[in-house]
Amino acid sequence: MRAIECGLLVGVLLAAPGLRAEDTGQAAADRLLATNACPGCNLDGMDLSGTNLMGADLEAASLRGTNLENAAITGAHLRGADLSKANLAGAILGGADMTDAVLSGANLRGAFLTLARMERANLDAAVLVQARVDNVNLDGASLVGADLTEADLYDSRFFFANLRDVRLQGANMNDVDFGEAELDGAVTDTETICPDRSNGPCHW
Fold first, then answer.
1. What pLDDT is attached to residue 183?
2. How many alpha carbons lie under 13 Å from residue 50 in its C-beta half-sphere?
3. Which end of the chain is less congested by CB atoms within 10 angstroms, N or C?
4. Half-sphere exposure of 151 toward its Cβ, with a 13 Å CA cutoff?
């Protein structure tokens, strides 16, 4: 009886959507590249550098530590995806939906994020040095300790965002709206362009 019960349990687990072989690892990567869709898949640690994922459906997917360097991800659906510690250096993410996504510790150096949706995204300790983050909605996002040195933040929104201890040296914050944002410990310098178009250091 115990063997039968164990067999039934294994069958149930294997049938669970989150544990299907095609939803994990290389099989998931192959599925993504073939269909441009793999919502909820586990792609942790995969090498997808330089790939064309424009408009891809990766909602709620797990891409922790995934290499997406120089990937074309324009207009992709990444709502609720986990990209913590992913390598997105030089990636093109213009217009992507990353609402509620987790990008803590991610490398977004030189990434292109123009017109992306990033409401409530977690970018704690993320690196966005020289990234294009203009016209981006970051309402309610958390960027605690993030590095935005020389980033272009023109006309982006940070309503109720947490930017505590963020680095903004040399960043362009022209026309940025920090309505009710937390900016304690934010670091600017004389190369920073403040929201009122004056040169830094900025005064909040």
1. 97
2. 0
3. N
4. 30
* Look-up of token digits 């039968």: 4
Query: Tokens 């935005």 belong to which residue?
Result: 148
Closest CA to 103 of 79, 86, 128: 86
How many of the other CB atoms lie within 10 Å of CB of 151? 29
Q: What is the pLDDT of residues 141-159, one digit of tens each?
A: 999 999 999 999 999 999 9
Q: pTM of the entire structure?
A: 0.88
Q: What DSSP line would sit under 137-181, residue for residue?
A: B-TT-B-TT-B-TT-B-TT-B-TT-B-TT-B-TT-B-TT-B-TT-
In whole angstroms, give the CA distance from residue 113 to residue 136. Answer: 7
Half-sphere exposure of 53 toward its Cβ, with a 13 Å CA cutoff?
33
At which residue do the structure tokens 């403040």 appear?
194
